[in-house]
Write a structure and sequence with these properties.
Shape: globular
Strand content: 25-35%
Distance between the termini: 35 Å
Number of strands: 6
Largest sheet: 6 strands, mixed
Length: about 130
Amino acid sequence: MSKEEHAAATLSPITTAELADLAIKTIVDHKGLEPVLLEVTKFCSFADYFILCSGGSQRHVLALAQHVEEALAQAGVKPLGVEGREEGQWVLMDYNTVVVHIFLQPRREFYNLEDLWSEVPKTQID
C-alpha cells in the first residue's frame, strides 16, 4: 500500500503537520526528554515524520504514551497501532504519517535512531 493509499484509508481530521505539532506539544508539556522531529518524507515510504523522545523511567515512558494518545484522540485521531506498552522500554505509536517513538533512555541510546536516519532533516525541540 502506498503512502497516499494508506493516508486515504485513515483520514484524519487534522493535517499531518498539526498532528506532529500536537504530539510534540504534548510530549514537551509532560516533560518528555530530548524530543526530536525527523522529517522522513523523502526517505520513507510509510511516514512523513518520526518523533523521538525519552522518558526518565518506565512509568514516565508509559505516561507520555498515554498523554499523546489522549491528546490526539481529543483531536479526533486514533493510532493505527501501539506497541511496547507491556514493557515500557520503547513505545511505538503509529499515526499513519506520523510515528512516535518514546524510549527509556538506555534503549534510545542502544537503537540510536537519530544516527540511523542521520541524512534526514532533524529538529531538536527545546
